[in-house]
Hints:
- The protein has 2 domains: 2-273, P-loop containing nucleotide triphosphate hydrolases (Rossmann fold, 3-Layer(aba) Sandwich), CATH 3.40.50.300; 282-335.
- The chain starts with a helix and ends with a helix.
- Helix 2 (41-65) packs parallel to helix 12 (255-273).
- The mean pLDDT is 95.
- The chain has a 5-stranded parallel beta sheet with strand order 2-3-1-4-5, with helices on both faces.
- The chain is built from 14 helices and 5 strands.
- Helix content is 53%, strand content 9%.
- By secondary structure, it is of the alpha/beta class.
- Adenosine monophosphate binds at residues 103-106, 134, 138-139, 142-143, 149.
Amino acid sequence: MADERAERIAEFVSPLRVGPGTEVRLPEDFDPAHKAGISKKKDGVELLRSGIELLADYQRRLAAQDVYGVLVCLQALDAGGKDGTIRHVMSGVNPQGVRVAGFKVPSQEELDHDYLWRYSRELPRRGEIGIFNRSHYEEVLVVRVHPENLRRQKLPLAARGPDVWERRYREINDWERYLTDNGFRIVKLFLNLSKEEQRVRFLKRIDVPERNWKFSPADVRERARWDDYQRAFSQMLSATSTEWAPWYVIPADRKWFARLCAAAVLAHTLIDIDPQYPQVSDQTRHELAEVRRDLEREAPEGAPADPYAASVAESAKEKKSKKSKNKKNKKNKKNKP
Ligand code: AMP
Ligand code: MG
């Protein structure tokens, strides 16, 4: 059953993955409105609910094992749905095990360091799921589309040449490989929005007063560079989808579908890690049994020696009697003329 589910998830996410070494061309290669055989929103929302439960279970095990960490990198154009994806997909997990970091225009202090410095400071610990709301990929996206950002980075002349983007791709791939080799798995999600859906979402942000704060005139200036961004995203996806950290292109025109895809890709990675609860040694188990005997002896009069074990036995008994009642009812119905 569990394996069947893992297989279904693997099948679901496979068409979203950018094969390492393939040349991606947006918008032709990935349809933002795709919804992979799930025609009804209701079905998608139901699937997401069970996906969220699955994530919560895996996150508990990841934290208990304390060996692996997971870093989720979310990239999208404005209004692509990054915030909502984080809110929904992580809604079931223990907040203590999750760390979210957002990245904006770099500060003076950040510009005083190498470009990966601020991202490495926000990496998750072992046992944690870290989420980057925008990530080190801004360094080959907004910085590439607006070269004045690169000029602000105080790079030595030799590091500012035309090969800077190819070099950054290589450096990012190497950095991610280093992290993966050392127990940190990287999940890269590009929320792929269509230009028309972005227009609709911008208008909603203008029309609904409670959403005005989410809109900035700068967003429209970025929209004017739509084609440049599509090119920068295409080159980034082609150059940095690797065996150890592949990109997933998430169709983002339907929010419910994008969230389902994001949850599925994260679940797929956690299933692959397969974190286990630590096993205690025979010696410890022996000690636990001794302590149990002491605690049982402390039971007040009339109370069960081990109230937890008693309640488990009681609910098992109830379940059994319910089952046999149902069986009898069914039999009676069958025998009725
Ligand atoms: P928001 O996520 O809407 O709050 O916007 C954050 C802004 O910061 C976006 O316009 C990003 O393009 C911009 N930003 C993020 N990282 C960088 C970077 N490394 N250099 C320049 N701008 C950036
Ligand atoms: Mg914004």
